[in-house]
Design a protein that fits this description.
The chain is mainly alpha-helical. Helix 1 packs antiparallel against helix 2.
Length: 151
């Protein structure tokens, strides 16, 4: 009997490689998202600190040069925060796209692996059937030889 050969093995290998690349892409996009979220949190913290500083200066001195500078800087930080929120939203969309792509590749790989497993089981059954046939033939031959010698 010839050895087991899965005709779609090269396609399966390709799918496994694509799945691995999809995992790596998802990890990279998740890391990018985490970095953007950390950056946004720092920006929020700066805004909060600046607002606290403005309140303190406002309660102590009233109008001062430092108060005006801080009040002018606050809208700039808020604008950066809005931009950062959009970047985070886009990064989250990219993560979701990468996740869906990975799920798609996993499904494709699983289908091919199941197909290969079924082909392997069929091959093993064929091998067992062939072995049983050979054993039956050998038993039959030895039975007739033994029976022939008795007559």
């Amino acid at each position: 009997m010839k050895s087991f050969q899965f005709r779609l093995q090269s396609k399966l290998d390709l799918c496994v490689n694509q799945e691995q690349m999809a995992k790596e892409m998802l990890q990279a996009r998740m890391k990018e998202l985490d970095n953007l979220v950390a950056e946004q949190n720092l920006l929020k913290q700066k805004i909060t600190e600046l607002e606290d500083t403005i309140r303190i200066i406002n309660s102590e001195n009233g109008l001062s040069q430092q108060l005006l500078i801080h009040k002018e800087y606050l809208p700039i930080l808020n604008k950066k925060n809005k931009i950062m929120l959009e970047k985070v939203r886009l990064a989250a969309l990219k993560v979701e796209e990468a996740r869906q792509y990975l799920i798609e590749k996993k499904k494709e790989t699983n289908v091919l692996e199941k197909l290969r497993d079924k082909k392997w089981e069929a091959y093993i059954n064929d091998v067992h059937t062939e072995e049983q046939k050979n054993n039956d033939e050998a038993a039959l031959i030895s039975y007739f030889r033994a029976h022939k010698n008795q007559h």
